[in-house]
Amino acid sequence: MKFKVLKKSKKSRARLGVIETKNGVMETPAFFPVATKACLKTLDSTDLANIGFEGVLCNTYHLMLQPTSAVIKKHGGLHKFMNYNGVIATDSGGFQVFSLGKGLSQGVGKVVGKVANKKEREKVKQPSLVKIRENGVYFQSHIDGSTHFLTPEKSIKIQQELGADIIFAFDECSSPLDNKKQTKRAMERTHTWAQKCLIAFKDKKASVNKRQGLFGIVQGGKYKDLRQKSAGVIGKMDFDGFGIGGSFGEAYGDLKKNMLNVLDYTIPLLHEEKPRHLLGIGYLEDFEKTIKKGIDLFDCVHPTRMARHGVAFTSQGKLNLQKSIFLKDKLPLDKKCSCSTCQNYSRAYITHLFRTGEITAMRLLTIHNLWFFKTFMKNIRKKIKQDKL
Amino acid sequence: MKFKVLKKSKKSRARLGVIETKNGVMETPAFFPVATKACLKTLDSTDLANIGFEGVLCNTYHLMLQPTSAVIKKHGGLHKFMNYNGVIATDSGGFQVFSLGKGLSQGVGKVVGKVANKKEREKVKQPSLVKIRENGVYFQSHIDGSTHFLTPEKSIKIQQELGADIIFAFDECSSPLDNKKQTKRAMERTHTWAQKCLIAFKDKKASVNKRQGLFGIVQGGKYKDLRQKSAGVIGKMDFDGFGIGGSFGEAYGDLKKNMLNVLDYTIPLLHEEKPRHLLGIGYLEDFEKTIKKGIDLFDCVHPTRMARHGVAFTSQGKLNLQKSIFLKDKLPLDKKCSCSTCQNYSRAYITHLFRTGEITAMRLLTIHNLWFFKTFMKNIRKKIKQDKL
Q1: I want to staple A163 with a disulfide (CB 3.0 to 4.6 A). Which of A209, A269, A300, A382 is the partner?
Q2: Considering the entire predicted model, what is its pTM?
Q3: Left (φ > 0), alpha (ψ -120 to 50) or beta: where does B147 sit?
Q4: Distance (Å) from the C-alpha of residue B41 to the closest C-alpha of chain A?
Q5: Region of residue A130 (left: phi > 0; alpha: psi -120 to 50; beta: else)
Q6: In angstroms, what separates the C-alpha of A272 from chain B's closest C-alpha?
Q7: Cβ pair B71:A328 closer than 8 A
Q8: Domains of chain A, start order
Q9: CB–CB contact A37 B358 (8 Å)
């Protein structure tokens, strides 16, 4: 994997770049839709190519359980398994340390949705499926209850077998409810594990894609000194790029507001010539702000999950296609959109499909939302080119 | 709608024909996949065009409830609503008189699946949602419990508003458990209603498609004299084509075996120059046998429903893609198939998607199964052309 900065904005830290991999080229800033289990929900790889997405992110934890990385390796890696000719990234399983651990037990995980206040959190608390040890993490499978011990070395081996173009070091994503002491311990483990990942990564025996790039992950929660410490330590290691980790989701109040500050503390300490991925973000309103701080890459389930819930992103704002009022509406989702859904179907038809439980509705909206996000990011790149951001 | 017989086989009653409509042309013998609620489950109209299907059949009863024929009329009819440039047929609601009536109360309806013997039928019995009167049928909506009275005149008006190319007269599909007296009464009502439908059909006020063709339906259950009577009466009416109705599904034992006999009694009494549609059939093994008896058209949920349950039709027989053994299998579903699924994905990938609950699995298999049925029918037409059937 190679990354080149092509242009820096005169107005901010925003920059244009390009990621070149064995499997495809990607202009940055860019957004990875999430294909958790080697499939972008409701679509197939042909659709992704038609929409024009240059990359997707898959989840190591889920693929480790089903169908296992050994199976995917036998099929020649993720690209061949999915038949996808683009850039693939895999996360490391580190986010699931949080989402299946304190995410569940504190009621703040993405898995339980938008839960901002203590009272609501109490209602959704569930037992943790995770035990963290110094050398790795025990996961209890959410599928069959079986126990899996994930270590930095194992995460790298699995990701080498999966064969993505961009892989991540195994980290401990801490909870927004953790105090400073807890956050610091998680960060220190993340640093130790990062070093172990780098060492494991040099051994290419398991690798189905010799041109993989390994990204290190900066942690440190909402604490300025911890973020600076983490960026300093991780930033000096020999990674091909960097992820900025943490639970920034809108569920977490403070930390979300704090996200831009975190980038201010962090980005200047990271290598200027290496790409920076803001993990798990984002919402449309996050992109410009964080790109101005120097972010190059994003991933999030947001556009695809919203699509499955009937919400379309349009140039006029969000539309909830579950509402019967749209049954009368002959317009496309967005007059300005040239995606295949908007070229072929009315709001009325899509609403009818949602209200009658047709799966096709989710698919048509997923196509549209991804097209919208792709175009949104393209316009941001244009702005950077013109020094307007 | 126009129908032309292009060639008759020298070996049987099989024939090649062509249906020409305002919206498309269809070679016969042909199979209509079922797009119950104006959507072929998991696909959209673009997919249908890509697969190369020349027609689909939608269900009047379901569309009457959601979104209503008035809504679809406002959008310019089904073709525009679905954005489908092909032949559309709608059934009349007559099959639902059976499936939501005795189908439920006797435990023999398609809605409850494959139920052959009395003991199994007892287990799945449910209250009927239907009350039959001399001038029409009361339906209790399976969605919200509201009551709808469907008459021959109303069925025609709704189908005129939907604007399909081929529509059917409102009939009373009897149950395979009905005795001769009951079957006879249902048949007589069907004949009275057929006449009323023809009269209603002449009034084109509601029609969004002035070139619609109306098919009459022959009933009479498993009784030779009733079938002959029905074919005689319906066959003499001024319909554009004929449906052969009845519950022939494999659930019904006797009647399924009797299906070929029924065609022998019936077909010779129907106008040679008009198309004959065997309603609700079929399975692959039904096609050649019934085409030899003179059938031109079919419709059935079988290929698409099986796809959603993980079953692929292949040149080697059926495969159940839910089985983990296929996770190792790098082959396409069918080596001989040139559908987009077989060109792009392995059995292993599709099985992985099924086992992890990805909707995409159902879609990929639906595409394949429809391609298989399309090709199957194409090969039958080729055989007829060569006088091999």
Answers
A1: A209
A2: 0.95
A3: beta
A4: 6
A5: beta
A6: 39
A7: yes
A8: 2-300 (3.20.20.105), 311-378 (no CATH)
A9: yes
Residue found by looking up tokens 């287990």 in the block:
B123
**Cβ separation of A82 and B349 shorter than 8 Å?**
yes
Interfacial residues of A (vs B; Cβ cutoff 8 Å): 37-46, 62, 66-67, 71, 74-75, 81-83, 327-328, 330, 340, 344-346, 348-349, 352-353, 355-356, 358-360, 362-364
Average pLDDT over every residue of A125-145: 93
In this structure, of A46-55, A60-69, B108-117, the range with the lowest mean pLDDT score is: B108-117
> Is the ipTM above a cut-off of 0.85?
yes
Chain B: nearest CA to A307, how far in angstroms?
14
Chain A with chain B: Cβ pairs closer than 8 A: 110
User: Helices (DSSP H) in chain A: which residue ranges?
Assistant: 45-51, 60-65, 69-74, 78-82, 94-97, 103-105, 118-124, 152-162, 180-202, 224-236, 254-266, 284-292, 302-308, 340-344, 347-355, 359-385
Of A42, A344, A346, nearest to B360 by CB-CB distance is A42
Catalytic residue of the set A91, A165, A171, A296: A91
- pLDDT tens for each residue of B140-187: 998 899 999 999 999 999 999 999 999 999 999 988 888 999 999 999
Respond yes or no: is residue A387 known to be catalytic: no
Would strands B87-90 and A166-168 be described as parallel, antiparallel, or unpaired? unpaired
**Nearest residue, CB atoms, A349 vs list B81, B330, B345:** B81
If you search the block for the tokens 């013997």, which residue do you land on?
Answer: B117
Of residues A124 and A39, more confidence is placed in A39
Please check the confidence at residue A254 and state whether its pLDDT lies above 90.
Answer: no
Structure-block tokens of residue A241: 């790029």
What kind and span of H or E run contains B125?
none
Concatenate the DSSP letters of all residues of B236-280 into one string.
Answer: HS--SEEEE-S--SGGGTHHHHHHHHHHHHHGGGS-TTS-EEETT
Is B344 in Cβ contact with A83 (below 8 Å)?
yes
d(CA B257, CA B291): 16
